Amino acid sequence: MALLSVRDLEVRFSTRKATVHAVNQIGFDLESGESLGIVGESGCGKSVSALAMLGILPKAGRVTGGSVEFGGVDLLKLPDQKLRQIRGKDIAMIFQDPMTSLNPVLTIGRQLTETLEKHLDMDKDVAKKEAAELLERVGIPRAADRLGDYPHQFSGGMRQRVMIAMAISCKPKLLIADEPTTALDVTIQAQILEVLKNLTAEEHMALILITHDLGVVAGVCERTNVMYAGKFVETAPTAKLFSKPRHPYTLGLLKSVPRLDAARKERLEPIAGLPRDLRTLPPGCSFAPRCLYATDRSRAETPELHTIDSDDHLVACWNPVPDADIPERHSLEDPGAS
Amino acid sequence: MSILEAEALELEIEHPSGLWRDAFDRLRRNPGAIIGAVIVALFLFLAVFASVAAPFGQNERVTAPTSTPDGPSSEHRFGVDKQGRDYLSRIIFGARLSLLVGIVSVAVGLSLGLLFGAMAGYFGGWLDTAIMRVMDILLAFPGFLLAIGLVTALGPGLWQIMLAVGITNVPQFARVLRSSVIAQRESDYVLAARSLGARGRRLLLRHVLPNSLAPVIVQATLAMATAIIDVAGLSYVGLGPNDPSLPEWGKMLADSAARLETGTHLVLFPGFAIVLSVLGLNLIGDGLREALDPRLKS
């Protein structure tokens, strides 16, 4: 049985004027130890899906349907009391901006030990030792000396390491990383991804990596889901997705990323148009207005995910990108290089 | 791992210090705040050691009662009052009262203001609306008028005055705290703490409140200054403590205002004491505001 099994998850935001359809019936399975990437542009519902799974949506948001089964229990049906015990212990989350995600008035040590004391019933001294060890594991030098320091005495990369240490402190079975490297510069990004990759492998943790950066999933994730307008439009093993993108949106994303091996004069191709306004969802494919491959059927009927090429490659498109249009260079030889 | 080492080096340059110590360091470099602190410390000293620092007792007769009291002399540096009491000693004992009044009324305003402000900001919704509308009603009256009304209702004792002045302070504290709680409530680290399983009360007390307190602390020092003025003002309009032996600065001012020509010193010295103590508190408040403002961090 899968560790996490999401079915038809649906999230709505109510504003005074309209209802925003943030997440529309998404579903996926995640085995323990597996790593899944969720890719999409800003506002497509990636982060909201994660927050909904943990039951920490902002006030205006609510889950209107679906189920999130974790270890056989539907998290959406659990009372808040029970869910709190799972948050931080079995499922932990890392956020985008390490500069603001730590409490500025508490020491790093205190923030780490608080979770340990609460979830694992450690007493103060044991928790302190464990905290130092955790910091060591995420690559913070002189860890024991730094427990008494405050967040503002750490750089961005160091703070993200602290966030990771906090998230893995109770050895969760599932780690959700929401844009963990977006706020960091490129050299630090690579280091943080390395830390994430190693830790999840060592602890056999499942990982959901939410990002807008295809380069990040390429290096870390076994499987990738592409999200558009609150729906998954394509899902495949990462290498397959990069070499044979079938959804026009996936292809567009790949074409808009600069590559070292591209011919010099080749231009980057942006995806024309603007992201879907999620206040109204007319029938048809959400991507149709921006799509070069859109047909009359795309505009009239909403496509659902179906297999294409092989059993593990699904796409929601009436007119998938033909082989001829897929550029040769989009191959992913070594999933370890990002 | 050379980048790691570089980061470690960079970290070593920063001397280890906490958030509050940083603020204290900035406060120490502010000359205005130092002057304010010295003034307030002086008054505090006089208040605590009044019985030692004052040359005479607060109600001790040193000369016969007279309608034309003597001005400053080498024996009585601030002169004597109509009852023949040493005026310097009365001013010194008055520091005790005025600081007590400032501290107690701010404590009343602060505790109620924190309670209401935190609840309104943290829980939001109808509770927020209900609390803040009540605060708006309180704010609709000019503070001094409200205090006069409250003293009239409660009676003219010293404690009633402090309570009244404290209540007029509640809306300011509630508003300041509410707005900073709202700002902190939506912050990333609160979301992060929730994702790690922190719950309502702990979230409010450990994460939201400590990060929202800085503006309230500034407000408290400034409110203490206005409280001293308010109490002096209440005494001046005749709503002060009705015990004539109590050396309250505003009351001393009111008692002698009619004899400005014959006993200038009787008006000058209590007025000067009020101005000086308020100035000291204001300087500290301004210094704190700068020290606690993260945007001014250098």
Give the CA-CA distance, first to last residue of chain A.
31 Å
Q: Biggest sheet of chain A, open or closed, and with what strands and sense?
A: 8 strands, mixed
- Give Rg of chain A in angstroms: 21 Å
Beta-strand content bin of chain B: under 5%
Largest interface: A-B, 45 and 30 residues
Approximate helicity band of chain A: 25-40%
| CATH superfamily (homologous) name of chain B | MetI-like
Structural class of chain B: mainly alpha
Q: Whole-number average pLDDT of chain B?
A: 83
Describe the structure.
Chain A is globular, with a radius of gyration of 21 Å. Chain A is of the alpha/beta class and 338 residues long. Chain A has a domain at 227-260 and 268-325. Chain A has helices at 46-54, 80-86, 108-120, 124-137, 143-146, 156-168, 186-203, 214-220, 238-243, 248-255, 296-300, and strands at residues 4-14, 19-30, 35-39, 61-70, 73-74, 91-94, 174-178, 206-211, 223-228, 231-237, 306-308, 310-315. Chain B is mainly α. Chain B has one domain: MetI-like (MetI-like fold), CATH 1.10.3720. Chain A binds chain B through residues 54, 56, 58-59, 84-89, 92-93, 95-97, 100-107, 114-115, 118-119, 139, 141-142, 148-150, 152-155, 157-158, 163, 166-167, 187-188, 191, and chain B through 3-5, 7-8, 10-11, 14, 16-19, 124, 186-189, 191-199, 206-207, 210-211.
Layout of helices and strands:
The complex is a heterodimer of chains A (338) and B (298).
Chain A (H helix, E strand, L loop, with lengths): L3 E11 L4 E12 L4 E5 L6 H9 L6 E10 L2 E2 L5 H7 L4 E4 L13 H13 L3 H14 L5 H4 L9 H13 L5 E5 L7 H18 L2 E6 L2 H7 L2 E6 L2 E7 H6 L4 H8 L40 H5 L5 E3 L1 E6 L23
Parallel strand pairs in A: 3-8, 3-9, 6-7, 7-8
Antiparallel strand pairs in A: 1-2, 1-4, 4-5, 9-10, 10-12, 11-12
Helix pairs in contact in A: 3-4, 4-6, 6-7
Chain B lengths: L1 H12 L5 H10 L2 H18 L1 H4 L33 H37 L1 H16 L2 H12 L3 H28 L2 H8 L4 H13 L1 H26 L9 H8 L7 H29 L6
Helix pairs in contact in B: 2-13, 3-5, 3-13, 5-6, 5-8, 5-11, 5-13, 6-8, 7-8, 7-11, 8-10, 8-11, 11-12, 11-13, 12-13
